[in-house]
Amino acid sequence: MGASALPADASVLAIDGAVKRFGSRTALAGLDLRLGDGEVFALLGPNGAGKTTTINLILGFLRAEAGTIRVCGIEAGEDPVGARRHVAYIPEQVALYPGLSGVENLRYFATLAGLDPSKDEARALLAEAGLAPEAHGRKAGAYSKGMRQKVGIAVALARRARLLLLDEPTSGLDPSAAADFSATVRAAAERGTAVLMATHDLYRVREMAGRVGVLSGGRIVEEIDPTALDHAALERLYIERLAEVAS
């Protein structure tokens, strides 16, 4: 379950001048972003802003026309498999095997990564990810979205992923589940995991993220310290920046 060491000054994620086009449409127009150990960065933007494209470039599913995307020093476009060894991705809807329990799902996905956690280790990881002990042996088909996400985070913990990618993680969660998931993400960051979250949830970014980048027109048009603004001020600034790009 070990992870390879990095130089102390290395970024977990380094995106420099990334450009991605789909035909005549430019999805990313020179995106720059750096993320270090234990940082939580929220890419905040409307649908079509380039959030999902950014995630797919990091995962190596797409290649940029220009610029570089490095994960733990590995160029994602040149060595996507190597880069993905350091990444855990939790999509908007986490897919688990419904007939398997939380413990069994975690052990199965860990096995795919070349790991072999015992049942006790799997239970400890699920508890660390915030899944209640009484749910560990329950079939995943009965899990809520928030519970499935926690299994996903437990898999990331098992792999000791350096970078956790979250795509619209709070979409469809009720307020209690969203607050619970926010606490889980903060706990992962406190253990040193870097977190990049693509979202349009203005409210939750203030709870989870230490830095917020407003993504519009394929680039970050403003970086914000969310703790410096209340929700109304953050919403106003976000709308203003989107309007400036559109004008």
From TrEMBL:
<protein>
    <submittedName>
        <fullName>ABC-2 type transport system ATP-binding protein</fullName>
    </submittedName>
</protein>
<dbReference type="GO" id="GO:0005524">
    <property type="term" value="F:ATP binding"/>
</dbReference>
<keyword id="KW-0067">ATP-binding</keyword>
<keyword id="KW-0813">Transport</keyword>
<dbReference type="InterPro" id="IPR017871">
    <property type="entry name" value="ABC_transporter-like_CS"/>
</dbReference>
<keyword id="KW-0547">Nucleotide-binding</keyword>
<dbReference type="Pfam" id="PF00005">
    <property type="entry name" value="ABC_tran"/>
</dbReference>
<dbReference type="InterPro" id="IPR051782">
    <property type="entry name" value="ABC_Transporter_VariousFunc"/>
</dbReference>
<dbReference type="GO" id="GO:0016887">
    <property type="term" value="F:ATP hydrolysis activity"/>
</dbReference>
<dbReference type="InterPro" id="IPR003593">
    <property type="entry name" value="AAA+_ATPase"/>
</dbReference>
<dbReference type="InterPro" id="IPR027417">
    <property type="entry name" value="P-loop_NTPase"/>
</dbReference>
<dbReference type="InterPro" id="IPR003439">
    <property type="entry name" value="ABC_transporter-like_ATP-bd"/>
</dbReference>
<comment type="similarity">
    <text>Belongs to the ABC transporter superfamily.</text>
</comment>
<feature type="domain" description="ABC transporter">
    <location>
        <begin position="13"/>
        <end position="242"/>
    </location>
</feature>
